[in-house]
Amino acid sequence: MSTMTPPGTVGPGANATLHGGGAPFAGLRPAPAKGTALAAQALTATANINTYASLPTPLVFTVTRADGPWLCLFDLAAYVDIAANNVEIALALDISGATTVAAGSHSEDRLHANAKSPIGTVLSLSDYAIINRGATTFELKYAATGAATVSDVAMQIVPLGPA
To answer: How far apart are CA 70 and CA 19, in angstroms?
Structure first.
Protein backbone atom coordinates (compact mmCIF):
# COMPACT_ATOMS: atom_id res chain seq x y z
CA MET A 1 0.00 0.00 0.00
CA SER A 2 1.36 3.41 -0.88
CA THR A 3 1.44 5.98 1.90
CA MET A 4 2.28 9.64 2.39
CA THR A 5 5.17 11.11 4.34
CA PRO A 6 4.34 13.24 7.40
CA PRO A 7 3.46 16.81 6.38
CA GLY A 8 5.22 20.05 7.18
CA THR A 9 3.56 23.24 8.35
CA VAL A 10 1.95 25.31 5.64
CA GLY A 11 1.81 29.09 5.96
CA PRO A 12 0.46 31.86 3.76
CA GLY A 13 1.78 31.57 0.22
CA ALA A 14 3.86 28.49 1.11
CA ASN A 15 3.70 25.03 -0.39
CA ALA A 16 3.93 21.63 1.27
CA THR A 17 4.56 18.63 -0.93
CA LEU A 18 3.56 15.14 0.11
CA HIS A 19 5.04 12.17 -1.74
CA GLY A 20 3.99 8.57 -2.19
CA GLY A 21 5.99 6.65 0.41
CA GLY A 22 7.87 3.40 0.52
CA ALA A 23 10.10 2.09 3.29
CA PRO A 24 10.28 3.20 6.06
CA PHE A 25 6.67 4.43 5.66
CA ALA A 26 5.26 1.28 4.02
CA GLY A 27 2.18 0.03 5.86
CA LEU A 28 1.67 3.23 7.88
CA ARG A 29 -1.60 5.14 7.74
CA PRO A 30 -1.30 8.17 5.43
CA ALA A 31 -0.71 11.46 7.26
CA PRO A 32 -2.90 14.52 6.59
CA ALA A 33 -1.72 17.69 4.88
CA LYS A 34 -2.59 20.59 7.18
CA GLY A 35 -2.73 24.33 6.58
CA THR A 36 -2.01 26.60 9.53
CA ALA A 37 -4.32 29.38 10.71
CA LEU A 38 -3.88 32.72 8.99
CA ALA A 39 -3.86 36.21 10.41
CA ALA A 40 -6.91 38.34 9.61
CA GLN A 41 -7.24 39.30 5.95
CA ALA A 42 -9.51 42.05 4.63
CA LEU A 43 -11.62 40.93 1.68
CA THR A 44 -13.16 43.25 -0.88
CA ALA A 45 -16.19 42.67 -3.07
CA THR A 46 -15.76 40.49 -6.15
CA ALA A 47 -17.92 40.92 -9.25
CA ASN A 48 -20.63 38.74 -7.64
CA ILE A 49 -21.08 35.84 -5.21
CA ASN A 50 -20.11 33.37 -7.96
CA THR A 51 -16.86 35.09 -8.99
CA TYR A 52 -13.95 33.78 -6.92
CA ALA A 53 -10.63 35.54 -6.20
CA SER A 54 -7.46 34.63 -4.31
CA LEU A 55 -7.07 35.75 -0.71
CA PRO A 56 -4.82 38.83 -0.28
CA THR A 57 -2.20 36.45 1.20
CA PRO A 58 -2.95 33.21 -0.65
CA LEU A 59 -3.25 29.91 1.17
CA VAL A 60 -1.88 27.42 -1.36
CA PHE A 61 -0.36 23.97 -1.06
CA THR A 62 0.39 20.98 -3.26
CA VAL A 63 -0.11 17.27 -2.71
CA THR A 64 1.90 14.92 -4.93
CA ARG A 65 0.81 11.30 -5.28
CA ALA A 66 2.94 8.65 -7.00
CA ASP A 67 -0.13 6.45 -7.33
CA GLY A 68 -3.82 7.00 -7.54
CA PRO A 69 -6.56 7.83 -7.69
CA TRP A 70 -7.11 8.29 -3.93
CA LEU A 71 -10.25 9.05 -1.96
CA CYS A 72 -9.52 12.05 0.28
CA LEU A 73 -11.38 13.81 3.10
CA PHE A 74 -11.25 17.62 3.06
CA ASP A 75 -11.81 19.71 6.18
CA LEU A 76 -12.05 23.50 5.95
CA ALA A 77 -12.86 26.02 8.69
CA ALA A 78 -12.63 29.81 8.91
CA TYR A 79 -13.81 32.72 11.03
CA VAL A 80 -15.66 35.35 8.98
CA ASP A 81 -16.43 38.85 10.25
CA ILE A 82 -18.96 40.87 8.23
CA ALA A 83 -19.31 44.47 9.45
CA ALA A 84 -22.02 45.75 7.09
CA ASN A 85 -25.63 44.88 6.27
CA ASN A 86 -26.62 42.57 3.39
CA VAL A 87 -23.20 41.09 2.60
CA GLU A 88 -22.68 37.55 1.30
CA ILE A 89 -19.35 35.73 1.43
CA ALA A 90 -18.35 32.30 0.16
CA LEU A 91 -15.10 30.36 0.65
CA ALA A 92 -14.15 27.40 -1.54
CA LEU A 93 -11.15 25.31 -2.53
CA ASP A 94 -9.81 25.75 -6.06
CA ILE A 95 -8.19 22.49 -7.15
CA SER A 96 -5.82 22.38 -10.13
CA GLY A 97 -3.17 20.11 -11.63
CA ALA A 98 -3.67 16.33 -11.77
CA THR A 99 -7.21 16.87 -10.40
CA THR A 100 -9.19 19.97 -11.40
CA VAL A 101 -12.27 21.41 -9.66
CA ALA A 102 -12.96 25.15 -9.98
CA ALA A 103 -13.74 27.06 -6.78
CA GLY A 104 -17.49 27.27 -6.22
CA SER A 105 -18.35 24.95 -9.11
CA HIS A 106 -20.43 22.84 -6.70
CA SER A 107 -22.51 24.95 -4.32
CA GLU A 108 -22.49 22.17 -1.71
CA ASP A 109 -18.66 22.32 -1.57
CA ARG A 110 -18.37 25.91 -0.34
CA LEU A 111 -18.73 27.78 2.92
CA HIS A 112 -21.38 30.47 2.60
CA ALA A 113 -22.66 33.25 4.88
CA ASN A 114 -25.42 35.71 4.01
CA ALA A 115 -25.58 38.45 6.64
CA LYS A 116 -28.62 40.70 6.86
CA SER A 117 -26.79 42.55 9.66
CA PRO A 118 -23.18 42.57 10.95
CA ILE A 119 -22.04 39.14 12.11
CA GLY A 120 -18.97 37.19 13.16
CA THR A 121 -19.20 33.44 12.66
CA VAL A 122 -17.18 30.27 12.25
CA LEU A 123 -17.87 28.38 9.04
CA SER A 124 -16.79 24.76 8.57
CA LEU A 125 -17.12 22.06 5.94
CA SER A 126 -16.04 18.45 5.46
CA ASP A 127 -16.31 16.72 2.09
CA TYR A 128 -14.81 13.88 0.05
CA ALA A 129 -13.11 13.95 -3.36
CA ILE A 130 -11.05 11.66 -5.55
CA ILE A 131 -7.52 12.93 -6.18
CA ASN A 132 -5.64 11.61 -9.22
CA ARG A 133 -2.00 10.52 -9.45
CA GLY A 134 0.43 13.43 -9.84
CA ALA A 135 0.68 16.92 -8.34
CA THR A 136 -2.56 18.60 -7.29
CA THR A 137 -2.60 22.19 -6.00
CA PHE A 138 -5.20 23.46 -3.53
CA GLU A 139 -5.94 27.17 -3.03
CA LEU A 140 -8.55 28.74 -0.79
CA LYS A 141 -10.52 31.37 -2.75
CA TYR A 142 -13.38 33.70 -1.84
CA ALA A 143 -16.35 35.49 -3.39
CA ALA A 144 -18.09 38.42 -1.67
CA THR A 145 -20.73 41.06 -2.33
CA GLY A 146 -19.10 43.48 0.12
CA ALA A 147 -16.25 43.96 2.56
CA ALA A 148 -15.47 41.29 5.15
CA THR A 149 -12.56 39.88 7.14
CA VAL A 150 -11.51 36.23 7.21
CA SER A 151 -9.15 34.78 9.82
CA ASP A 152 -8.20 31.59 11.61
CA VAL A 153 -8.39 29.56 8.42
CA ALA A 154 -7.61 25.86 8.78
CA MET A 155 -7.45 23.32 5.96
CA GLN A 156 -6.76 19.63 6.12
CA ILE A 157 -6.64 16.93 3.44
CA VAL A 158 -6.60 13.33 4.63
CA PRO A 159 -6.04 10.53 2.10
CA LEU A 160 -8.31 7.64 3.10
CA GLY A 161 -7.19 5.03 0.59
CA PRO A 162 -7.21 4.05 -3.06
CA ALA A 163 -10.41 5.02 -4.86
So the answer is: 13
Pairing relationship of beta strands 119-131 and 70-82 according to DSSP bridges? antiparallel
DSSP 101: B
CB 154 within 8 A of CB 76: yes
- The 10s digit of each residue's pLDDT in 29-60 is 445 555 555 788 999 999 999 999 999 988 88
Any idea of the CA torsion for 32, 35, 110, 103, to the nearest 10 degrees? -100
Question: For the chain, how long is the longest CA-to-CA vector?
Answer: 56
Tens digits of residue pLDDT in 92-143: 889 899 888 888 887 777 888 888 888 898 888 888 888 898 998 888 899 9
Instruction: Tell me the C-alpha distance between 68 and 135, whole Å.
Output: 11
3-state secondary structure of 146: coil
Rounded Cα distance, 21 and 41, in Å: 36
Domain range list for the chain = 3-162
CA separation, residue 81 to residues 88, 123, 145 (Å)? 11, 11, 13
CATH code, 3-162: 2.60.120.660
